[in-house]
Each structure stands twice: as structure tokens, then as C-alpha cells.
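--- STAGE predict ---
source: upstream dedup step, 1 unique chain passed
mode: sequence only
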Amino acid sequence: MNAKLILKTVFLIVMLLLLVLIGLYNKDSVPFILPPLLTKSIKLPAAIMYFAFFAIGVLTGTILGAGRGKKGSGGAAKPAGR
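--- STAGE serialize ---
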């Protein structure tokens, strides 16, 4: 198995564990204020906000990293069977 894939999997598991721990210990509600986009403040538990910001970061990274295909000479893709 690829060492890079194992390292990424371990990192993902650690991040998910961190999200679970944050959810367990941060139950107080906090206000979120963003005047250009929201007209009134949103009051949610801190853990939910942390998860939302984490999800937005993952989605942003996925979108920015998408489409980085390997460019070979000639630009044609190799058939899957060879």
C-alpha cells in the first residue's frame, strides 16, 4: 500500500477524533456575526460552528485541488487495461 495514502488516512482519523472531542466539550452557544452577508447574528453551539468551518475548509481545499491531472507527452490518456 502507498505510504502517502496511509499518512493521509491517519491524518483524517486524527481530525475526526478532534471534531468528536470538540463536540463533547464545547456545548456553550456563541454568536456568529458577519455583517456583509448576514443581517442578524446566529447563535449556535461552538462545536457546530467548528464543524461548519472545518467542512468549509475541506470543501475549499477540494475545489482548489481539483483538476490537477498529470500531463503526459501528447496529452492522451492511457487506456485502463494496459
